[in-house]
Structures are given as C-alpha cells and as structure tokens.
Write a structure and sequence with these properties.
With 69 residues, the chain is an alpha+beta fold. It is built from two helices and three strands; from the N terminus they run ββααβ. Strand 1 and strand 2 form a beta hairpin. It is elongated.
Length: 69
C-alpha cells in the first residue's frame, strides 16, 4: 500500500510478486544512501535488496476486486 500525504485517503494498492532477493551484495552497497560507518562495521547486521514486479495497481479505496484473480 502506498498512501499519499495530505487530507483524506489517497494512494494506491499494489499487488506485487517477488522476483529475487540479494544479501549484502555490491549493488546493495552502491544503492545504500543512508549507510553509516557504524552500521556497516557491524558483522551481525545483514542488509537485503529485494526486487518486485508490479502485477496490479488499484486505487486505495473503491473498485471492488476479488482476491482470487
């Protein structure tokens, strides 16, 4: 679910399929913008990068859809 800021209920409902998952890869380090040296130094901390495909996009409210699509 993605909710837009502002009054009322605005946003999208997304139906996703996970494509793949990577753990502590070089691509993840390149994409990491908020990595602090203290966090990167922790041996126990693991970071994951997950790729999804958007299957369906619906309004946040309204549009009755069955879950058996």
């Amino acid at each position: 679910m993605f909710m837009e800021t502002g009054p009322g209920y605005k946003g999208k409902r997304l139906s996703l399929t996970m494509l793949r998952e990577e753990e502590d890869t070089e691509l993840l380090q390149d994409l990491c913008r908020r990595c602090h040296p203290k966090e990167l130094a922790k041996e126990q901390s693991k970071r994951f990068l997950v790729f999804f495909r958007i299957d369906k996009e619906l309004p946040l409210i309204g549009v009755n859809q069955t879950t058996n699509d």
